[in-house]
Amino acid sequence: MLYLTSDDFPIFVPFGVIGFYRYLWYLIRIIASVTYRPVPLPENPTYVASEDVTIIVPTIDAGEEFKEAANSWLAGKPKEIIIITEEKMLIPLQELANAVDPERIRVLTVPFANKRLQMAHGIRNTTTDIIVFADDDAIWPPTLLPYVLACFEDQKVGGVGTSQRVQPVGTRMTVWEVLAAFRLTIRNIEISSSTHIDGGLPCLSGRTAAYRTVILKDPEFLHGFTHDYWLGKYQLNSGDDKFLTRWMVSHGWSTYVQCCKEAELLSTMKPNWRFLKQVLRWTRNTWRSDLRSLFMERYIWTTHPYVAYTMVDKLFNPFTLLVGPCLVGYLVWKSTIAVIDGGYHLPWWNIILSYIVWLLATRTAKLLPHLWHTPSHIIYVPAFILFGYYFAIMKLYALFTLHETGWGTRAGIGDPTKATAATDGGNHRHFHIPARPL
């Protein structure tokens, strides 16, 4: 029997308040997500993919899975696909492109692997009104481009994102891929709710996001994008999507996310422990970008106050999450000395069992949107709980290692010295265009 005695009630008050706060806001997100509606297709679209869209794909090691992804992009009938890779990968990437569609896929190179440098090179070689950045493993439904372009009917919209699901690497998902799928489900709820509440979102995910070319061709943007430093001395290569999102906010552009099956892409995740390295890189990027948004640039407070709140909430999230096990540990310790002291009526097994039941119930409830479609994944809920505590500790570790800017899962990517030299020394033609919409 699980019980709490009245003399111990005050001990659980802080625990209950934190839990109530967390799940109240989760309920608000769920309600906002359910009431969110994607932008419908216009009867007479201003933008047509075959005339107005260039897809830019920075990559260094695309394999056979690239063919499936590229064919899915071509189903949307873009005007052109530009692949940007490092010089030593030109031949294998050109062979892959030729095997798919040599007429609509162009392969360009930069001297060495650096994602932001590759993206900037693609921007300079684009002639269409809309640029869509995509990962080399992002698989689109054929309706994705029309639904993304529909958002640009609003001339204030500068960037558009999409919802996502995990595509397993093998025949079935590993536990790491299921954890990623859980995270994406929660993320889809977060971005649709924030878009519905105040029109903003924390990040236009780099897996697939579309932008007005006029914004990205601005020399001010290109310079800032390729000369982005943390604390003025650690040059950043990853975190490009966070930079792009902040640029939209700070330069007066609106953003939108199409959360619907017609615009939902599939993406692979690391199917092994290297997924943890991915998460660590993403976490560092989130810390850097959110701290900048909240305390340095500060545009987010007035343009998207709800998103600002979610950013602040995430700053404290690892601390509030770790309060639970710390309190349980304290109560277990207190119960063990009750035999000596007397007067404590809550046995240690009751405390631990109560906490486990609470975790299983609440985390399962939080994952119901995912489990509704894939009920077999309920067996991974305990792994998700353990990962949550690991993630809280990792977030604190990431906070104290923000100076580490390496890719993590790909060795040798992004030499800051070479990147600066390449972007400063290149003889490129620029067109200065105002960044703010009229």
From TrEMBL:
Its main location: membrane. The chain crosses the membrane at residues 12-32, 319-340, 377-400. The keyword Transferase applies. The keyword Cytoplasm does not apply. InterPro entries: Glycosyltrans_GT2/GT47, Nucleotide-diphossugar_trans. It comes from the Eukaryota. It is found in: Membrane. One of its GO terms (cellular component) is membrane. PANTHER family: EXOSTOSIN-LIKE 2, SYNTHASE CPS1, PUTATIVE (AFU_ORTHOLOGUE AFUA_7G02500)-RELATED. This is Glycosyltransferase family 2 protein.
